[in-house]
Amino acid sequence: MTGWSLAWRLSRRALSARFRGLRLLLLCLFLGVGALAAIGSLAQAIDRELATRGRVLLGGDVEFAVSQRLADAPELAAMRAAGRVSETVRMQSMAVAANGATAPVQLKAVDRAYPLYGRLTLADGRTVGAPADDAVWIGRALAERLAVAPGATLRLGTATFRIGGIIADEPDRLGEGFTLGPVAIVSRAGLDRTGLIQPGSLYATRYRIAAKGAPAAIAERFERRFDTAGWETKTRDRASPGASRFVARMGDFLTLVGLAALVIAGIGIGNGVSSYLEARRDTIATLKILGATSGMVARIYLLQLLAVSAVGIGLGLIAGIAAVPLAGIAISGVLPVAPGLTVQPGPLALAAGYGLLIALAFCARPLVAAGRVPAAALLRGALDTRGGGGWRGIAWGLAAGLPVPVLALLTSARPGFTAAFLGATAGALAMLVAIGALIRAAAARAPRPRRPLARLALSALHRPGSRTVSLVVALGLGLTLFVLLATIRTSIDGNIRRSVPERAPALFALDVPPEREAEFRRTVTAIAPGATIATVPLMRGTITGYGTTRVADLATIPEGAWALRGERGLTFSATLPAGSTLSAGRWWSAQEAGESLVSVDERLAEALDLKIGDPLTVSVLGMERTARIASFRRIAWETLGFNFVMVFSPGALRDVPHNLAATIDMPAAKAQRVTAALLPRFPSTSVIEVGSVLAQVQDVVRQMAAAITAAASVAVLSGIAVLLGAIAAARAARSYDAVLLKVLGATRRQVLAAQAIEYALLVGAVGVVATILGVGGGWFVVTQIFAFDWLPDWGVVAATLALGAGVTMAIGVAGSLPVLRARPAAALRRM
User: Fold this and answer.
1) Distance from first CA to last CA of the chain, Å, rounded?
2) What is the distance between the alpha carbons of residues 661 and 642, in angstroms, rounded to a whole number?
3) Which CATH number describes the domain made up of 532-665?
4) Which alpha helices (H) appear in 161-240, and where do they start and end?
5) Residue 609 — φ and ψ, nearest 5°?
6) Helix, strand, coil share of the chain (percent; to 5)
7) Are 297 and 2 in contact (CB under 8 A)?
8) Which pLDDT score is estimated for 637?
9) Average pLDDT of 319-333?
10) What pLDDT, on a 0 to 100 scale, did the predictor assign at position 828?
11) What is the pTM of this model?
């Protein structure tokens, strides 16, 4: 037997069934491949679920939506020419039970064609459509809050409805977006009975179409024909664009975290393989003496490493498949759909490919080094450093490693972002390597301490065979990841806390008739005399043009220009609103208030490159209004007051039919009494408790934080694996040091203390750099990927850094304990 067959026979005989010496390789590949497999499978499962169920989630093949009006005859005729049409009207309302309990609801009126796709099912098993005109289907959450059951009655507006059933599955729920309360479904005639729709009322009308032709072509024709009417269009392939954007953004982050974890684990693989081959110097020497070539030695151990890598990759793939449904359950509030157990061949093959390439890249140099060392040098002892991998090892490593970033760029939806992330990761690793080399050089030139233990620790940093560079990389990565995790988590927690300002209003009220504002105020102050009530005109509109650009002509929405997606709340005011500060331009004077002017959020202005004096066009109630930009504002969104991206002068929108929105600042204990007093007098007004809305938002953000933390924790575990690998790689040299010291009379405590001092010196040296890298990475993730505000808790970050330093030092010292068990006689025989 010659060549590969002989190499496999020898490799199989030497390979331990318990993978002794190669468990670190197994662990690193399991962590990295498992993370990538889970992340890729989860993202693709959600994407496929959204694509497969697109028409059900949307409620049609095409959807056209507009606020505060119904489609006119030409618009409706154009829709009916495209296919079967279903009309749905949504608005905020209040449900009042016979027992006096109240709750905000998302009132949804459907016609007899609803649903075009999917099934609306009730808890009792019935499949239904629109209810009778005097009946209502309600969500389970509403039934629980009001303590009502089928057969009971509810008042919506001025009409009373019988509860016909509890909704078990609403097919187009995801396409409806965020709602301020559970759903209540009535018929179109039932909505007319409520009297809720009046001139100026806030409601959204949606027309879903079971299309006869291509949805994209239908949408394009309709938008071109009615381009000034303010219609928002969706097709079944983007049924939930917000959910798709979130999944894509989270998928990008998690994939890059998985890649970074795998690259970090690769360093651990390299260290672990070096340690494994170091422990087999006698076997390699024997093979060399018996005539084995350098190529044969490399083949034998390459096959061993490939066999173990295959097991690690396989276990990682299994873990990745199993993690998908578990992740779906754990963060169900964040994910748009709930993926079950699924096998996604593409992401699994990609994760396996990444794992194999990383293993080959980081194993190449120690394998080449093991094959090139002469037998005589091997027999001289472990401290003989001749015959390293050299340029040949580096070349093989680069050949295996270069496809990794190429694959990452080719498979990424945002290659520029991916290149920046990978470049930053490579830069951080290069910086740590350079710092390790600098520490080693500085230790060699530093004056010798007088205390023996300190002198030994300093000498260990630069002596022949020292692993200072790999230890600095390992310790630096560990500390960087601890700081990164702390800054991300505390910033998200800070955003959650900011969502509850010190003086948040207790209630929001929508659709207050302007002519009854004084009566509204009297009703509130009769219950809460000290209440502060703020009102603003409120309507909905769509930005259709800015400067010389028409929004309909844009191929993609500019980054940061979220206000161009769909409708926005609009208002007008003679004075600068509270919570806003002018950053450019000036506010209109009393004489200018009759002109068509607008003030715009400075962030939107920056995203669209707007200038003072540029025109801005919005569509309101199907009619376009153009105003000249008079100023830019910095908005304090965290105040939870009335914050609008666009505030118009009274002359621009005063003649548009509208109602008022109100905030009521008062003790929260009086909220229910105020709501009970308002509803009989203002049946068309919706009153919403701010606390319940904030709780929903905070729940989602907390689950997102949990997902980010879990993903980053994989990288932290990989960093710990790197540290273990670096310790294992240095164990042989440290064993000889410990033996010589013990022969010369040193105690175990003294040997351990010298190593502890060495780790303390290294941790102190890399702590500042790790903090800079961790904080920089955390800022990028928080502000650039997830668009949160940068709000780290520096006290927690500092405590985490101290804890991380303690943990890494403890791992380093604990990893050195086996060195103390080295027997002098056995060790000296091998020197």
Assistant:
1) 34
2) 9
3) 2.40.40
4) 173-176, 188-194, 215-225
5) 55, 45
6) 55, 15, 25
7) no
8) 63
9) 71
10) 57
11) 0.62
- Tokens standing for residue 50: 């959204």
| Cα of 767 vs its chain's centroid, Å | 27
Q: Is 637 helix (H, G, I), strand (E, B) or coil?
A: helix
**Is residue 398 pLDDT above 60, yes or no?**
yes
Spatial contact of 582 and 658, defined as CB atoms under 8 Å apart:
no
Give the sign of the dihedral formed by CA 43, CA 44, CA 45, CA 46. Answer: positive
The pLDDT score that the predictor gives to residue 75 is 92
As given in the structure block, the two tokens for residue 156 are 């919506």
User: Tokens for 75?
Assistant: 């618009």
Sorted by sequence, the CB contacts under 8 Å of residue 436 that are 6+ apart come out as 468, 469, 470, 471, 472, 473
Nearest to 526 by CA among 677, 361, 333: 677
Rounded Cα gap, residues 777 and 779, in angstroms: 5
Distances (CA, A) of 526 to 57, 520, 670, 824: 45, 10, 11, 90
* Domain edges within the chain: 1-60+245-413, 63-235, 440-502+691-830, 532-665
- Per-residue burial over 57-85, b = 16 or more CB atoms within 10 Å of its CB, e = otherwise: bbbbbbbbbbbbbebeeebeebbeebbeb
Do 501 and 638 touch, CB atoms closer than 8 A? yes
Q: Hey, which residues does 580 pair with through a beta bridge?
A: 635
> What does pLDDT average to over the chain?
80
Which of 431, 33, 27 is closest to 259 using CA atoms?
33
State the Cα–Cα distance between residues 286 and 291, nearest whole angstrom. Answer: 9
pLDDT at 383: 47
CA triple 436-438-442, angle to 5 deg: 120
Between β-strands 568-572 and 646-648, what pairing exists: parallel, antiparallel or unpaired? parallel
Residues 140 and 165: their CA atoms lie apart, in Å, by 9
Q: Among 382-386, 393-397, 485-489, 723-727, where is mean pLDDT lowest? A: 382-386
Distance CA 525, CA 512 (A): 16
557: alpha, beta or left? (left if phi > 0; alpha if psi -120 to 50): beta
Question: Which pair of tokens denotes residue 282?
Answer: 């006698």
